[in-house]
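Regression test attached.
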Amino acid sequence: MNFTIQNVLIPIPTSDDYTTTDVQVIDGIITAIAPGLEVVGEAINGQNKLLLPGFVNAHTHSSEMWQRGIIPPLPLELWLAQLYDFAPLDAEKVYLSALGTAVETLLTGGTTVVDHLVLIPDQELETIATAVRAYREVGIRAFIAPLIQDQSLNAGIPSGDTQQNHEAFFRSTQETLEVLEAAIKQFHDPEDGISILAAPTGIQLCSDALFTGCIELGEKYNLCLHSHLLETKAQAMLAQEKYGCTGVEHLRNLGYLSDRTSLAHCVHLTDNDIAILAETQSTVVHNPLSNLRLGSGIAPILKFRQAGVNVSFGCDGASSNDSQDLLEAIKIGSILHNTTDLEYEHWITPRQAVEMAALGGARGLNMEQEIGSVTVGKKADLVLYDLSNLSLLPRTDPIGLLVLGRPVNVVDSAWVNGKQVVRDGTVTTVDIQELRTELFQHSQWDSKGKSATVEEIEAHYRYVMGLGIFK
Amino acid sequence: MNFTIQNVLIPIPTSDDYTTTDVQVIDGIITAIAPGLEVVGEAINGQNKLLLPGFVNAHTHSSEMWQRGIIPPLPLELWLAQLYDFAPLDAEKVYLSALGTAVETLLTGGTTVVDHLVLIPDQELETIATAVRAYREVGIRAFIAPLIQDQSLNAGIPSGDTQQNHEAFFRSTQETLEVLEAAIKQFHDPEDGISILAAPTGIQLCSDALFTGCIELGEKYNLCLHSHLLETKAQAMLAQEKYGCTGVEHLRNLGYLSDRTSLAHCVHLTDNDIAILAETQSTVVHNPLSNLRLGSGIAPILKFRQAGVNVSFGCDGASSNDSQDLLEAIKIGSILHNTTDLEYEHWITPRQAVEMAALGGARGLNMEQEIGSVTVGKKADLVLYDLSNLSLLPRTDPIGLLVLGRPVNVVDSAWVNGKQVVRDGTVTTVDIQELRTELFQHSQWDSKGKSATVEEIEAHYRYVMGLGIFK
């Protein structure tokens, strides 16, 4: 676990420049950054390479990998029905897609993943154990957020002026919280790189009691909180129907928002909502590809940043993206917002994007003091990029190329907690060829139309969203 | 030039399904598509592979590759000043960036490139000759559109209520048209895969006489026309200042719009402009990454499609993207528009995106009868994708994975006019290692602030765009 990276390019903070230096890591901690250091442990040749802190893939759902590429262009509420109709209910598949998610994250600059993990009904703890096993094998730092709800899927669509009766969820709020607490006791082990988050799906499918129960478990076990929030116009309408206020106001009133809460999406927020997120020091996880793919909208990221809200990046599940390429999420999540404000002084620079992806991600998980920058005393969650790769040539500004370009095969090495997990561009901890074979054999080429559930709920969705009669 | 691809997956037109079949190519022409064909020429194993028509990278500027990653977030008008201040004026660099552009296009599904080529002043024909040499060596089908203008750069910014005097361009309109005609005579050779387009930069930098001269050369030499059009809000304002009507109306009045005209960007159009493009059967080249990066806006692509306007995809130059990954442009150019229309029946499906990228691109170059689909009698501009690549697993809908995912290293083989130019994932016609070495040696890591010209014009730009005093 000791190594010294020699003659590596690193960005100089508070400037646009770079310096060539050595970085020393002992027992998983960055112990020195200076030119000409004594070599401790393995000597790593950093020449023509760029060293950055590992990024955080701050919101995903690993098992969606099984459905990537196949769900037709649909808005979230219908897409979700299609997703659930064909969701894999099989521990072996959960294992393989967690491996795949971790591998794609590592090979695109991520060293931490937040998996809002879809649970197999009545096998919740087994599902979590399977994901834990996969992440331990790969060696990525993992925050597993068991995806819990206590209301049925149809409850997520506004009623409008209609009367809707939603069937009860198959499990009570109390039982769901008991499952979560069992998972915390069994798997929460931050020192070993596996943490549990308390993470209700979102206001659209959860009671106040579930949110409150999660706050209590968070306090009891010292956990961070996570949730989806106001991803779609329909959810913003639903919040008004359910609470008579915005979803942000309601979560603030429940006490759910704090500097240990990260919230995925945050697309449909008012200016007052943004002020609340700033005041409570909550983190927004921006999932730009998913927001485009599902037509959810463009999150007001520049407004968040001007208000002082911490923003990080996520890929979101691979059925709504349909990838786990963190560099892609960072690129699109940066440049997308240039169209929302003519004042280019507000636009996100490549350096700022890197900071959001690394330190912003760490902050949302209460890890700001431990990871998120190449700083003496912090854990060695590091990524070394090969600047001689064709996609990063000709040589210009390395971080500009990485963020604004389309880097391919550029991660030379990655370390998590000082342990090397990528070497010479290859994940060393799992057998990638075997993973490919398994993914291939557990699937078949197919193209599906709309699912039965979509057909069932589509007319109401169209009515309440003002889309008129379905053609 | 004869080969037979065996047992390859191809999409069945007018359905969502696929079939496994053989495809036979003789003398560069697709001669048969059916299962169990007699092997003519080389037998190509198509198992676990998808065959699609080659895509068209329908708008780029190859030499911008030298500045990718380095220009700070700026709107087009300021970005352009920065671009020109540091543009490479060196034939060797033009050669290398044309090679790089072709290689990245081929490795992301493109078999045709439209290079709106920046010309070195007083070395215009040498610049074009250099790009022709590069494209011939790589073997990509190339449409070279020499970038011509007859007004100085500052003329591209609206005057608003100020008096602006623009210095004359260094060369007269007539001389510029003579250079273009010389290029046509010397290099236009469609049968050999090199075509010249008549392509004034755009209304913002060109006189009516230059447009009219290009129309005449187009008629005389049977060329297609190309131009930038209404990329930014500033250009839409400028059109009103110059012509008292929209840019589309003015080009229609000049006779520039026809089924042989392709127009890059088309972001700021009125509904009447869209009707004019439909009526004249003009093609829109959508460059989504560039439009985001430069904050130009979101082109009304769904409206174009509903009006029956042909739309294709371009990467645009690598300083405004900052890549030449055609699959990235196709993905973002598809999903971006889901945020502009709640009616998801209008959203672009992956199959439609493939058709836009291939047949749509061909149509904009008057090549619809010759390329753009896997059809008996058409030229063999084909791409074979490896569906066992990790980024296309697990197996679901192959075209969905290709368009909505983030495919990496998936192009197994590519043919242009029946000649193989990619084999086993590697471009076979040029030495990629040598190209990397050359690009590396001709450049250095650097990070630049704003250029002198940007500083000079920024105050006026901010004033006329209503951005207020520069901080």
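Expected vs. actual: identical. Chain B touches chain A through 89 residues (CB under 8 Å).
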